[in-house]
């Protein structure tokens, strides 16, 4: 007999999302009512073509000299890592604990920062991004190259974007599985972005666990990174699943995270230059990128406030249920034992006894915690 949690994943696909790994593709922007009815209310992603053809950015941003002259006196936030994986899990080199590693962030002149992105190598990867409305602040001189909002989205959602962020990276940068408390309208201007998506109902397939926070430090003198655990220790709840493990680790990862690897495949979306992804609030997403002929991928995303409504309440309830209870109701008396087993830090976190606010922390990704 199908386990109750598997029935939930399947039912959501049968009733709403479909059984393929594709999402709806609209050939033009939706009307506000269509966007609200078919996508926002349904908490369902879609890909949209022909919505940004009129943006000056779609032509101007293919010219690196244009960027360099427009932003010649701007300072921007450059994220540096030795792997291209910031806000991601990695073994700590001395303690070998798995930790949540954040990039070294340098605020430097744009021309230097762009050079660091273009000259990235597999030991030092630069990614220009900052999820604090950076497009309208750090990149102000570019703001006329894109519309300030998507009118169909603003009308459907009843508000203007809360934050607009610019992302300039290359194929070495990867964003690990996480979710955000925003309705995300994500536009690719140059290159391509490859998203893996899972709905909030699949939360247990992500194995969210608390990991100790650590920060990369880059030494200009040696050109090497160190990774330092934060003191006092801080724990960040993060998705444990790496969907693309190396061949050596694959078998081990598949055995550790069977609900992910043996369950329904994630939705796969490539967003090409000129296209938009509507990424609904609370959806888990993992992002990789392919660059344009210069070696850059450029995107702008618009974060609109989400509604903290009944869907959010149901999600909190679902997330508070440990696996044992969902897969085998008879064992629900044994919640503490299971959640201790699943804690990856030898510092048990009792999921079943978490308060509403602790659960809420689990839902917030580090971006929310760190930037907002
Ligand atoms: O483009 C990326 O690397 C990540 C985008 C993302 O995570 C977001 O927009 O929430």
TrEMBL record:
An annotated GO cellular component: cytoplasm
Gene3D superfamilies: Jelly Rolls
Segments of this protein annotated with the region Disordered: 343-372
Bias kind Polar residues: ranges: 343-358
One Pfam short name: Cupin_8
Biased amino acid composition, Basic and acidic residues: 361-372
Residue ranges of every copy of the JmjC domain listed in the record: 126-319
Protein name: JmjC domain-containing protein 7
MF terms (GO), sorted A to Z: 2-oxoglutarate-dependent dioxygenase activity; endopeptidase activity
Organism: Nicotiana tabacum
InterPro entries xref list: Cupin_8 (IPR041667), JmjC_dom (IPR003347), RmlC-like_jellyroll (IPR014710)
UniProt-listed PANTHER family: BIFUNCTIONAL PEPTIDASE AND (3S)-LYSYL HYDROXYLASE JMJD7, HYPOXIA-INDUCIBLE FACTOR 1 ALPHA INHIBITOR-RELATED
Family named by the database record: Belongs to the JARID1 histone demethylase family.
């Amino acid at each position: 007999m199908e386990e109750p949690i598997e029935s939930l994943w399947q039912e959501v696909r049968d009733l709403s999302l479909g059984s393929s790994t594709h999402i709806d593709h609209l050939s033009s922007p939706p009307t506000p009512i269509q966007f609200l009815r078919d996508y926002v209310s349904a908490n369902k992603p879609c890909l949209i073509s022909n919505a940004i053809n009129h943006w000056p950015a779609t032509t101007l941003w293919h010219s690196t000299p244009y960027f360099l002259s427009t932003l010649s006196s701007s300072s921007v936030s450059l994220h540096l890592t030795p792997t291209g994986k910031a806000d991601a899990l990695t073994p700590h080199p001395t303690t070998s604990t798995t930790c949540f590693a954040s990039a070294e962030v340098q605020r430097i002149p744009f021309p230097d920062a762009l050079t660091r992105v273009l000259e990235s190598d597999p030991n030092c990867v630069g990614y220009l991004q900052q999820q604090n409305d950076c497009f309208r602040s750090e990149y102000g001189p570019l703001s006329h190259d894109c519309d300030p909002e998507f009118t169909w989205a603003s009308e459907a959602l009843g508000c203007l974007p809360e934050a607009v962020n610019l992302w300039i990276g290359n194929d070495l940068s990867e964003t690990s599985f996480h979710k955000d408390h925003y309705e995300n309208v994500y536009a690719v201007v140059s290159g391509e972005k490859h998203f893996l998506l899972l709905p909030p109902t699949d939360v247990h397939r992500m194995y969210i666990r608390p990991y100790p926070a650590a920060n990369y430090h880059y030494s200009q003198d040696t050109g090497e990174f160190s990774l330092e655990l934060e003191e006092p220790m801080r724990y960040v709840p993060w998705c444990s699943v790496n969907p693309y493990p190396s061949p050596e680790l694959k078998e081990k990862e598949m055995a550790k995270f069977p609900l992910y690897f043996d369950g329904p495949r994630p939705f796969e979306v490539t967003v090409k230059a000129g296209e938009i992804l509507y990424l609904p609030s609370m959806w888990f997403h993992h992002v990789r990128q392919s660059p344009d002929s210069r070696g850059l991928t450029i995107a702008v995303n618009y974060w609109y406030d989400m509604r903290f409504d009944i869907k959010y309440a149901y999600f909190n309830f679902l997330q508070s249920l440990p696996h044992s209870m969902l897969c085998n109701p008879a064992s629900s008396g044994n919640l503490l034992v299971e959640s201790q087993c699943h804690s990856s830090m030898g510092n048990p976190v009792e999921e079943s006894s978490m308060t509403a606010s602790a659960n809420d922390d689990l839902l917030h990704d580090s971006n929310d915690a760190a930037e907002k």
